[in-house]
């Protein structure tokens, strides 16, 4: 009997018991489709989560100079030091002093607000996406030392606008002129709910910290390289005094999420493989029982036992292969539809291509016992009992 004859006989045998064969194939399809859909959805979901984290944390690098000479250099000097790093798109000094509790009053409207200070330069405000929506931002070169910009929310609570003539406020009892109103990008609150001060004004008010923080923006692909060179660029004489905090690598986050998803998928795959194997074993065991007379006649007519065994093994492999292949296609479609419905980028790991071979291997393993039973049938005993 040639291999073609074995396959043909196996297909004919499955066709004669098509109801049970179809039920087994459908069970394998469900298992395989579940696995493939899980892998695809996990991959797409992990990539989407990584992108969301990347958007939340942005591409800003925070470098803090922890030394006594942190404020010795002007903003222009600091930015000049960063020029060799062409990957930096914007940079500037900005310190969010959330711990400060400033009592801000409007002498004109007799309103009071308790808020915190943001100390920095216009370049620092630009680096975090903030902007002046009225007037201008104070700088260290202003003729009047005591100037400030109000956050959008603070200005509203105090009843101050730049349409008023020379608006003034008091900060902890010190009279300060208002040069403008500043706001964050989108729905941020760090600038809008604070008082913006230049480093020189903050020093006069006793609010400037010893440490200086520089915000640097760079493309996501360049963040690691830029973070590595910032300490030496900002403080060449003492780079160890510079602390750099860079956003997490999206690729690392995605790999971590995928590792967790793959561990879960491995466990589920093992369970589904066992379920599939039991389904095939059950179907083939019943086939051996139902076809004992047919097997006995074939053996009595001289068919070698191993060829009869090969036919049953081939049937099990066909069931596993068809079911796994069909499930792989259906699972991929389910994952694609899910990704499209949730506006995700559809991703499917290459490991799903192993589902069909895995189904064949599972079918072969599951068919060993039924094939062994078929080969051990004694035709003489079977015919005498009939």
Q: What is the number of independent domains?
A: 2
Structural class: alpha+beta
**How would a crystallographer describe the biggest sheet?**
6 strands, mixed, barrel
Quote the distance from N terminus to C terminus: 27 Å
Shape: rod-shaped
Cα-atom radius of gyration: 37 Å
Provide the succession of SSEs. Answer: HHEHEEHEEHEEEHEHEHHHHHH
Set out the fold topology.
Layout (H helix, E strand, L loop, with lengths): L2 H14 L1 H40 L2 E6 L9 H7 L6 E19 L4 E10 L1 H6 L3 E5 L11 E5 H7 L9 E4 L2 E10 L10 E4 L1 H6 L7 E7 L4 H12 L7 E4 L4 H41 L1 H9 L4 H37 L13 H12 L1 H8 L3 H7 L1
Parallel strand pairs: 3-8, 5-7
Antiparallel strand pairs: 1-9, 1-10, 2-3, 2-6, 2-9, 4-7, 5-8, 6-7
Helix pairs in contact: 1-10, 2-8, 2-10, 8-10, 8-11, 8-12, 9-13, 10-11, 10-12
Plain-language structure description:
Keywords: Cell membrane, Membrane, Transmembrane, Transmembrane helix. It is a multi-pass membrane protein. One of its GO terms (molecular function) is transmembrane transporter activity. It is found in: Cell membrane. It is a single chain. This protein is α+β, with helices and mostly antiparallel strands and about 375 residues long. Helices cover about 55% and strands about 20% of the residues. It folds into 2 domains: about 5-55 and about 250-385, no CATH class; about 60-245, no CATH class. It is built from 13 helices and 10 strands. It has a 6-stranded mixed β-barrel. A hairpin with a 2-residue loop joins β6 (about 170) and β7. α1 (about 5-15) crosses α10, α8 (about 250-290) packs parallel to α11 and α8 (about 250-290) packs parallel to α12 (about 370-375). The longest helix has about 40 residues, at about 250-290. The two termini are about 25 Å apart.
